[in-house]
Write a structure and sequence with these properties.
heterodimer, A: 4 strands, elongated, B: alpha+beta, three-stranded antiparallel β-sheet
Amino acid sequence: MAGLRWGRNEVGQRVVTHTNHRQGTAENLNNDWVMLSLPYRGPSPIAEKVAKYNEICRRHHPINADRPRGWYIWVFVDRANMEAALKELAEAELGLSVVVSGLFDEVAECCRKAGTRAHTVNHSLGFWGQSEKLPPREVLEITTMCGHGLVAAGLVWHLAEKMRREGLPAAAACQEMRRMCICDIFNHVRAEELMGQLVEAIEEGQLAPRPRASR
Amino acid sequence: MIIDNELCTGCLECLPYCPMGAIVRDEKTGRAAIIEDECVECGVCYRARVCAPDAICPQELQWPRTLRMEFSDPSAPYVSPVFEHRIISRLQADLREMGRRQLLDREGEELTISGRGTIEMKMNDVMGRFKRGRAGVAAEVGRPGVGARFRDVQTVTQALASVGVRFEPQNPLTDLMTDVQTGTLRGDILDEKVLSCIVEFNVALEDLARVLGKMREVAEQIDTVFAVDLISVVSEDGSIPTVPIAESLGLEPSIAGKTNVGLGRPLASLE
């Protein structure tokens, strides 16, 4: 994409993703797959390979293809699309290093079908220390989709309240959160479902929003 | 970051955007105010563009406050003079050692360190940073969304150093240590607060249980949280050597995380 620089977002900021601690259940993580490659130059020029990588991924309907980008991170909500992209990437033999974030067993199965195998894995062992400082699970499932922590728990509460009181559509709320994630790996489609559940939990009195701070 | 009092209209729209909850309503003025010591200079409030009169402005940062931005704003480069040259030259030297291969951006510009840590296992198939028989470990202090003072980070690094951990040399935090053997950080940075700071290292599998045990112990001594990463090369039979070790300690490795799917070529040696 003209005007964009590799490894940078649309305003030229350098970006590195962070996807290792996305919280959720096997069920609600089944629509959350992030595919990432990093530029690496071996014996041959890399630009063509990168273009091919992006072309293949784009063809399989990542949800973050709607914004201008010249880079390499794609979010899929449908496992079948991620699997098809992975298979095609393997067949193309680009030699680019690729990381897929998501349910390990599912990714391993996709690798097998693509004729490759998991090489290295990174597990989360959870959050240790003063865990009472963390927001509830329902909020963490949303905020951890920006691994750099740029989607504030307070924003989740605020938008949930706007959904409840002002009828803000969930899609608009989730696009607003997505804007904060400069790597654009925030899965706004999954977030819509989670926000719906959060609002429901607030309505039923199971969760209470945090009050605004003052001094 | 600062809020220009003259421009702020008191709409308070910016309050929920701060990951640290550092923007508050000033009861005297009714306007938004930033608690300077809690602000980690992540830039979220500024980039959010929710302030109609543009009252939120970045300020010129002086050392050691510069570290707040460098460790909290993923778009910010590491520019602090204490580690800039050392860390970049070290990365390049390592790459040369691995066969004169370079990380390049699309325009041929060499990639330097970016993000809060290294590229960890992202390119392990072609770089071989993590070998068989080793485990990569990271404590992402302050994550998710709590933030951390370097004083707490030092509590973690000193505890790890006491059990023989050698810190990742390409991680910016290592360059902020005055003594890598003891995990001691520069005294002038200890009160600085950042969104997160990653302590990275790798250990032999036989030492993993002891190190994780130490991490559990030190987690009780800090005023924040850390997210724990555990990296392993997958064995030929598909098993993951770190998993049974973690499970033997009563830990539950996540059901989701990152998988390097082994498509990179040429493959690096893991021995």
